[in-house]
Amino acid sequence: MDRGKKTDVTQQPLGVAVVGAGYWGPNLVRNFQASDRFRLRHLCDLDVERARRVLGGYSTVQATADYPAVLADPEVDAVAVATPAGTHLDIALAALRAGKHVLVEKPLAATYADGMRLVTEAEERGLTLMCDHTYCYTPAVGRIREAVRSGELGEIHFVDSVRINLGLVQKDIDVLWDLAPHDLSILDFILPDTVEPVAVAAHGADPIGAGHACVAYLTLRLNTGAIAHVHVNWLSPTKVRTTMVGGAKRTLLWDDLNPLQRVAVYDRGVDLASPHEIGVDERRDMLVSYRSGDMVAPALGEKEALRSMVEEFADAVRERRAPLTDGRAGLRVLDILEAASRSLQFQGAVVGLRAGH
Amino acid sequence: MDRGKKTDVTQQPLGVAVVGAGYWGPNLVRNFQASDRFRLRHLCDLDVERARRVLGGYSTVQATADYPAVLADPEVDAVAVATPAGTHLDIALAALRAGKHVLVEKPLAATYADGMRLVTEAEERGLTLMCDHTYCYTPAVGRIREAVRSGELGEIHFVDSVRINLGLVQKDIDVLWDLAPHDLSILDFILPDTVEPVAVAAHGADPIGAGHACVAYLTLRLNTGAIAHVHVNWLSPTKVRTTMVGGAKRTLLWDDLNPLQRVAVYDRGVDLASPHEIGVDERRDMLVSYRSGDMVAPALGEKEALRSMVEEFADAVRERRAPLTDGRAGLRVLDILEAASRSLQFQGAVVGLRAGH
Amino acid sequence: MDRGKKTDVTQQPLGVAVVGAGYWGPNLVRNFQASDRFRLRHLCDLDVERARRVLGGYSTVQATADYPAVLADPEVDAVAVATPAGTHLDIALAALRAGKHVLVEKPLAATYADGMRLVTEAEERGLTLMCDHTYCYTPAVGRIREAVRSGELGEIHFVDSVRINLGLVQKDIDVLWDLAPHDLSILDFILPDTVEPVAVAAHGADPIGAGHACVAYLTLRLNTGAIAHVHVNWLSPTKVRTTMVGGAKRTLLWDDLNPLQRVAVYDRGVDLASPHEIGVDERRDMLVSYRSGDMVAPALGEKEALRSMVEEFADAVRERRAPLTDGRAGLRVLDILEAASRSLQFQGAVVGLRAGH
Amino acid sequence: MDRGKKTDVTQQPLGVAVVGAGYWGPNLVRNFQASDRFRLRHLCDLDVERARRVLGGYSTVQATADYPAVLADPEVDAVAVATPAGTHLDIALAALRAGKHVLVEKPLAATYADGMRLVTEAEERGLTLMCDHTYCYTPAVGRIREAVRSGELGEIHFVDSVRINLGLVQKDIDVLWDLAPHDLSILDFILPDTVEPVAVAAHGADPIGAGHACVAYLTLRLNTGAIAHVHVNWLSPTKVRTTMVGGAKRTLLWDDLNPLQRVAVYDRGVDLASPHEIGVDERRDMLVSYRSGDMVAPALGEKEALRSMVEEFADAVRERRAPLTDGRAGLRVLDILEAASRSLQFQGAVVGLRAGH
């Protein structure tokens, strides 16, 4: 009986394998091990020595380079993919075809078309496909989503995101594909369902001759007339990670590098009086008033984002529902990234986005 | 004899009149009074009561609404114009035609064409025309100019400027014309003579219905391939005023709101190895190395920028030379502002700049 | 008729003279000139040239070295004393004896005994004696006083004040007498009437051989068992000006160098469960709980403290009432300073304070 | 052959057991596992379930409650003690008597006398006794030690340390014993060999009725006349961790919560002219000059302190030398803590320290 089976699943941890022992894989390994909803069975990497080093000398988890064997293991219910984006399609597709639920590191795939194949495959098989948009699971972003979607901030006027640092200059991807997925997945996560980007323009520079942009600015037009802007930069010697969300009622500032005050909600701003409140003759004067209110920095929990993310993965699998950051969220991010690349190619031309993912 | 006359001039303070008792005029009044190179004779405003209030109840300076009388006063050697930009042409032109040296608040004029008329008039008459680009006279910007032009930073890779605040929403001009002149005049001031912007793209939004952009992003392409970017915003509840100047050797960060550490020079960055240093087969690996060096925050003087600015005006008049921020500097800023407005109008289209001002 | 006279006084500005054209005098000159409640008549200094320089070349105010003539001027209703502390007694006493109201720069006098003579003289003559405890008139300190005295913070548990900077090493007074009057006058101002310091201990060091302490730490015991602590330091290359007021309900942090967020009220802290809530056997466990609440940074006005201070002086004179920072407030500060000096002399011994000023 | 044996030891990892699976033990477990100089064999805790939870479900390390069995294991060369201070004596003494090298969490023991027994026992047996003064192994403190001991800062004038936070109110120990060991061990570590504290005064308050001080101020007199001061506080809703080291030539500021600029060296300060440079008559004027120089924030490594600490433990054992933070360093800290407790008991009385540990 299905229901009995489902109950079983709920009570037993999900068997999981991590593929990729590079930069991100070890974080997944650590968090799957720390969660009682999972039983980590394999860490798979083409370089099995690297997998062994990640597991360390005291682990009972199996290191392996044999991915088909991992997929053949009936105790593996799910696969987490933390390999370079160019390999996501093959690895994730194989897992889905073996009947495994799949968690994929951002970006979902190397292209929108590839991402769409994964989404379709998962939907056809009734399997969970989740994109590891880690930031969406931080207490800060959860609070921002709530502030935006509850109306606490009022209608969104602008979003300004800065993510700059002396970053690892990547060989295969430019700074937009490396860093902007964070900002774009957060934007996708916090906006109300009725608000969405419709067009993109991007400007970049490659002053060090890396072969692609190391500094980039991305402007998004939303369907409401609001503007969103992202500044990503690998060459900044100081680290800045801020996002400002300006609303009609309040404005929120997230400073991820200020652990003592990550989120601040300002009850200050500019109001425009409604035209009907004033006579025709007064129209020529500026109908503006300024609020100078308090700032509130809400208390936020301390829970590690990756812990919440893997728990959401487990819950989505067990409850047979779409996870908060599902494959379609990953697709929407890919759509913007591809449009941004086209804009970069055409010197900042405005590029429209696909509708209705 | 001219020379004798000049000596005289050097020994006696310059007679000066300030026109405009609004937002900026009082600052000029205070600084002309504090400098022994000037003798302030008139404060002129259409609203003479406002001029009186600015002078206060203890002043011997004359408040007046009679501009022709001011121009007719032979003891007035120079006129400082601090009125709305739309009136600069008429007021400054009248002063030049009366043989007075002229200092004009930024922007130089309402249009490039107006500005050009002022520059031409002053040049034909051999009079000093100076633009009050105040920030250029701060110790911080002086230090930045030195760092850029001496080669201390190496070739300039990017400039990123943020000037956001809960600002006064203007009736007549958008946020670009209100705030970006600061950033553009600074950029013009610090760049080496051989480096200049060649094209501009601007994106803006008017989420409060003010009738023009309240949030704007400006991207400039320099003739070297470098990129400069300016973010100006009237709707931000927090104040940010930073400029980062990224160079091949070092990167400089100016934070104007951090009095304890306004300028920081980072000896950290990303280097690209020269192609000839490596073999063909290794090309595919990233030829990048990272420097992780010290940061130096240089000691800066405390001199008030406006004080230095009025002294430069006096010196330029006496030495019959172009001031550091002359009319042509003001013209170059107007050229960018007009191009930015056109770009805004065409949804971010790239607009080329005039050459050889 | 008294009442008629009072009405007259209310309508006309008070004639005032400033004595002392050194460091602080010019600030008083500026603020008396800017207030329509005063008419500044004289700036008096033994060095009349210095007084002239302070007034500048455009002023109608009279510079003078002739203090008796100032006191003889019937249009002078009040005298503001901004001379070194050692001269306060003579200058202020002469003014009081000439029937003038008196405002004195902090500290009130060089000794408690001198201060008491001034207080007594003023009280006997029914004249206003006010101490210029400027910080008490900042919007921040006003808000702190309100938070403490309204019970918003709960019972006060501790006060911690840091005022360090590369300061002017004084010839005649140590760092405690130079800087601590600020912190002590603020403490005096914000505490509820029933709470007061009862004893003092001070530790200092003179590492540069200045002849008196350049670094000092002051501990005050309050009658409630709470503790207050002040760190003053002339040798710190960075500037810190913070005061933390810890209460049973909330804790307030004032950072005077953070204009974007001067005051923050934290609704977080440690609570101790009441003993009667728990059984005897559980006593050995810690009865502590932690609150992790929001932080609120209240909107504060921007009014200049000195402006509010001179207005309070005018109001107190006109309303024939004690000003907020009257002579007795100055006396209480002197009492602590003298006790602190005695403690320094005896290597940190605890010294009791006088009761009932 | 001894030498052969030693070579063997160098090549093989040291067998180690951790005792205590509470707050700190898991950090030691993680770092011993990550270092190839150690082989972690046991995690011992009276509550064996707690030890199992710390190890997690994937570990090959043995959890045990049987300490005698751990000591009997010949493969255990060293024991790391991370239990409450009151148990350090018994646990560490048993380990030393079993011939094991010992690492002890701070403070070394509950009393100076207990600590001395451990030091004596270890010295008599030729075993390594090390105190886990973790902060001393941070790159920042290493840099401070270098700056102080190399003379870069000049003679030390003052040290000011602040360590405040909403901390866990402890049941058995006051805030001084909980937090000040960090500051005192750092002070002990950075001072030149010829400079040492000679006396202590402490002030504290227990405003929440915890049974011992929750806020405390500690003043130390050094043999050079310099002063050191430590502020520790469990009740502060904001976290501050700064140490300023003021020297005759330069002043260093360590802000442990500013990852972008942990250490800053200021070349600014106050100088006193030598008396012989000036004539007798000029003595009365202040012989002070001010330097206004640059600030340098040195690049620091990123190595985890605990990793460096366990490596120093391994090196000290293998090289048969005293570790950087040996038992005697722990003793010196205990001496100050006991003196501080006596001072607290006597209301801030100055208490002398033992000489020549």
Automatic annotation (TrEMBL), chains A, B, C, D:
Residues 143-248 form the GFO/IDH/MocA-like oxidoreductase domain. It holds the Pfam family GFO_IDH_MocA_C3. One of its GO terms (molecular function) is nucleotide binding. SUPFAM superfamilies: Glyceraldehyde-3-phosphate dehydrogenase-like, C-terminal domain (SSF55347), NAD(P)-binding Rossmann-fold domains (SSF51735). InterPro entries: Gfo/Idh/MocA-like_OxRdtase_N, Gfo/Idh/MocA_Oxidoreductases, GFO_IDH_MocA-like_dom, NAD(P)-bd_dom_sf. It comes from Streptomyces fumanus. This is Oxidoreductase. Residues 15-133 form the Gfo/Idh/MocA-like oxidoreductase N-terminal domain.
